[in-house]
């Protein structure tokens, strides 16, 4: 029995608005998410899941409204926590690169790729079991999405993360817990 996961990376989000948990979408991000909603309305989605971060929830909210579905929020689908202090973009990119070389690497007070992947996969595998044979949309983030996909196929690594767009959509087809196929649906 096939289960379909739609990984929906959030739309463009301003870095100067609020903190990681509460920042929303830019005007461009909101327009792009309307396109995401139109693209996915006819897919027959049964369940909508999201990270607890506002930008991820906003990225599946329109779809949920159109399909008259609730959004189920899972704390363990949040984006990876990088450090206990504010880091500059150059340090962030260096840290991300190092994390793909060493999955246990982390900055002080941060979370490793291995820990982030473990918590997110725990949720994803339970969703695959609970909603077997269904179509599930997940509002997510670039790094945690890459790590979830990497768990099933190691070709989804740093190069994959670096080419992602905001938003982006990947349709993953599973047979039980076995990933069979991945198709990119967003091409804007």
TrEMBL record:
Q: Name one Pfam family in it.
A: His_Phos_1
Task: Supply the InterPro entries for this chain.
Answer: His_Pase_superF_clade-1, His_PPase_superfam, PG/BPGM_mutase_AS, PGM_Phosphatase
PROSITE patterns to which the protein is assigned, alphabetical: PG_MUTASE
Superkingdom of origin: Bacteria
CDD domains per record: HP_PGM_like
Q: Enumerate the SUPFAM superfamilies for this protein.
A: Phosphoglycerate mutase-like
Can you say what this protein is called? Answer: Histidine phosphatase family protein
């Amino acid at each position: 029995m096939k289960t379909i996961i739609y990984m929906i990376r959030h739309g463009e989000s301003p870095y100067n608005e609020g903190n990681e948990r509460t920042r929303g979408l830019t005007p461009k991000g909101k327009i792009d998410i309307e396109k995401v909603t139109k693209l996915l309305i006819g897919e027959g989605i049964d369940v909508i899941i999201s990270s607890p971060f506002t930008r991820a929830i906003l990225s599946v909210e329109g779809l949920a409204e159109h399909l008259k579905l609730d959004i189920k929020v899972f704390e363990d689908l949040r984006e990876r926590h990088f450090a206990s202090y504010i880091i500059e973009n150059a340090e962030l990119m260096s840290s991300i690169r190092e994390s793909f070389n060493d999955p246990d690497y982390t900055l002080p007070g941060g979370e490793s790729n291995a820990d982030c992947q473990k918590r997110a996969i725990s949720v994803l595998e339970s969703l695959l079991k609970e909603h077997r044979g269904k179509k599930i949309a997940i509002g997510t983030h670039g790094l945690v999405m890459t790590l979830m996909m990497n768990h099933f196929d190691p070709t989804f690594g740093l190069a994959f993360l670096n080419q992602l767009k905001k938003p982006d959509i990947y349709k993953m087809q599973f047979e039980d817990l076995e990933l069979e196929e991945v198709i990119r649906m967003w091409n804007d």
